[in-house]
């Protein structure tokens, strides 16, 4: 009888220890500040997921959820997520991610890129020190816009073709949110006054899209100025823009129309 009590006591002790371990918080560091994560961020080998609740607490945004849906609000941005879905609604717009939101024992794990897009930051995980180094995304430093025309001098009435290049000059892959399906714009100036804009007669879908560039990758766009745009002999200026937030502009490019 006494032996059975000892065995039972040992069993209960082991059970309590393992239960405590299962509920233990993982002490990590967000930008050098200690934060208790409710689940280890390295539970996914590819670091595609981050635990939502402690990051919401750290960034002080409101959060309500049940077993099916998550609602959040941060700095005038409201969002809704669904467990098991790759679709997020941010300010009423749908965004689709590569990985679904999941729930593990009541802990919400969201795609890392969702939080990076929402907060406009990069999470850099340093596993040996259990630290996340947070840095603001620096698209303007890595993105460059280049413009050139097929000629520098044109005869009056000759067709003008413009090439715009959007290049990632950095060594990291970029995934940049855009507020619509418009990627770029092109402006034509005469004596610093805008006389034509490529997007003026265009329609774009009002939904968040993502523009992706691999390290050192370029994307090339060709724009032909409309023939009904009558340019009298003079010097003109072109400028291209990439429609990120903040907007990124090319240098001014000059061309001339002659008699």
TrEMBL record:
UniProt domain Copper amine oxidase-like N-terminal: residue ranges: 30-132
InterPro entries listed in its UniProt record: Cu_amine_oxidase-like_N, Intracell_prot_inh_BsuPI, IPI, Mao_N_sf
Disulfide bond is among the record's keywords: no
Residues of the Intracellular proteinase inhibitor BsuPI domain: 148-245
Keywords: Signal
Organism domain of life: Bacteria
Matches recorded under Gene3D superfamilies: Intracellular proteinase inhibitor BsuPI
Keyword Cell inner membrane: no
Signal peptide interval: 1-24
Protein name: Copper amine oxidase-like N-terminal domain-containing protein
Lineage of origin: Bacteria, Bacillati, Bacillota, Clostridia, Halanaerobiales
